[in-house]
């Protein structure tokens, strides 16, 4: 897969978030929640007009260019928020975290800001650069789609159900509009044509004739998917207050963060139980039986979702903003870290395997008849 270049113009526009956030933080009027949401909407509107006027050709070619540029701006804002909450910066986004979205000051909120300000930011720059150069970015877009959707599906309901539900601000309704973006962007990204492959029908048939034991990498991935599914079921039972001794020991000695009243960890485990678990089963089936052409695309979406989820979950489990009683104990830190790291790496290995040798998942062409061969020779 060719990696598209970064968009230099997008970098320059995104860094405008630094002076804008600093100047707004100095205005005392922004201590009111209504001013915060109105100003946020106004800045996003002005940013869209600037992008449209400066890059009309790119937007005409692909409207998602405007989305990536605007979101690169918000990614820088999120990175500033995370760095400020951890004490590395001062005087930039205090007004927003106090009167706009106070739940961003939680450990989970800080780590989704770190992810958005680094991984998502690089993806926005790369995809915007691909549009400017008229190159493909479908695979990167699918990864971003899964990551962005998972972040919203846990964060927004967690704000409503957790202990910060009494501190809802008008900016929350502005964040709800973000949920429309992955729906529209997902349709456009999935409708983009896939990169052509160099496999002939004979090569595809030869690859799909191999048994599972002739594909040790696929066999290892199936074993991993089985264990990941079992672990997902177990943690789902834990957050559902299963009374067994194993669940009791695990939630108190290994992952006490699952008891945190912020609700994010519980929602995360339920997302795994109801969405990740079926995917593990379907992916294991697709690795065992050929022709499941849906797996490469959805493996990328799933890798993005699990990558974002595990980064936020692992980071929040050990962050200082999490109360001490809910942090991972020092004597079980290694087990917690290794098990959750494997849970994050596995989907990325699955996605890499699908992109590396996709012949097993392609639809096998029917063998040509002797009459067709005679016609071709004539």
UniProtKB/TrEMBL annotation:
GO terms for biological process: lipid homeostasis; regulation of lipid metabolic process. The keyword Secreted does not apply. GO terms for cellular component: endoplasmic reticulum membrane; endoplasmic reticulum-Golgi intermediate compartment membrane. It is a multi-pass membrane protein. Its main location: membrane. It comes from Mus spicilegus (Mound-building mouse). It is found in: Endomembrane system. InterPro entries: EXPERA, TM6SF1-like, TM_Tm6sf1/2. Belongs to the TM6SF family. This is Transmembrane 6 superfamily member 2. Pfam families: EBP (PF05241), TM_Tm6sf2 (PF26083). Keywords: Membrane, Repeat, Transmembrane, Transmembrane helix. The chain crosses the membrane at residues 33-52, 64-83, 142-160, 172-190, 219-238, 269-288, 295-313, 333-352. It comes from the Eukaryota. GO terms for molecular function: identical protein binding. Residues 61-186, 217-351 form the EXPERA domain.
């Amino acid at each position: 897969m060719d990696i598209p270049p970064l968009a230099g113009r997008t970098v320059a526009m995104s860094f405008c978030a630094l002076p804008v956030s600093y100047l707004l933080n100095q205005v005392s009027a922004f201590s009111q929640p209504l001013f915060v949401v109105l100003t946020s909407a106004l800045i996003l509107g002005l940013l869209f007009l600037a992008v449209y006027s400066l890059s009309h050709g790119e937007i005409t070619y692909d409207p998602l260019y405007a989305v990536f540029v605007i979101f690169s701006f918000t990614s820088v804002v999120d990175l500033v928020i995370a760095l400020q909450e951890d004490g590395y910066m001062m005087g930039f986004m205090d007004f927003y975290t106090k009167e706009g979205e106070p739940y961003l000051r939680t450990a989970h909120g800080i780590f989704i800001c770190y992810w958005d300000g680094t991984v998502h930011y690089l993806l926005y720059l790369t995809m915007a650069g691909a549009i400017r150069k008229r190159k493909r970015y479908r695979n990167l877009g699918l990864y971003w789609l899964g990551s962005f959707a998972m972040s919203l599906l846990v964060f927004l309901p967690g704000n409503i159900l957790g202990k910060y539900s009494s501190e809802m601000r008008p900016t929350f309704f502005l964040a709800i509009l973000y949920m429309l973006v992955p729906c529209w962007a997902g349709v456009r990204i999935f409708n983009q044509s896939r990169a052509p492959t160099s496999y002939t029908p004979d090569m595809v048939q030869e690859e799909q004739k191999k048994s599972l034991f002739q594909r040790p990498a696929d066999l290892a991935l199936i074993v991993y998917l089985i264990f990941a599914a079992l672990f997902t079921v177990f943690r789902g039972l834990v957050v559902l207050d299963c009374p067994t001794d194993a669940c009791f020991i695990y939630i108190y000695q290994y992952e006490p963060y699952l008891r945190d009243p912020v609700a994010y960890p519980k929602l995360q485990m339920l997302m795994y139980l109801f969405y990740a678990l079926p995917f593990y089963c379907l992916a294991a089936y697709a690795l065992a039986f050929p022709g499941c052409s849906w797996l490469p695309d959805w493996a990328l979406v799933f890798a993005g979702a699990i990558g974002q989820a595990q980064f936020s979950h692992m980071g929040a489990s050990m962050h200082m903003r999490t109360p001490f009683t809910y942090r991972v104990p020092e004597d079980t830190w290694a087990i917690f870290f290794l098990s959750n790291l494997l849970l994050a790496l596995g989907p990325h290995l699955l996605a890499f395997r699908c992109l590396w040798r996709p012949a097993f998942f392609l639809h096998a062409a029917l063998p040509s008849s002797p009459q067709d061969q005679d016609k071709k020779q004539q």
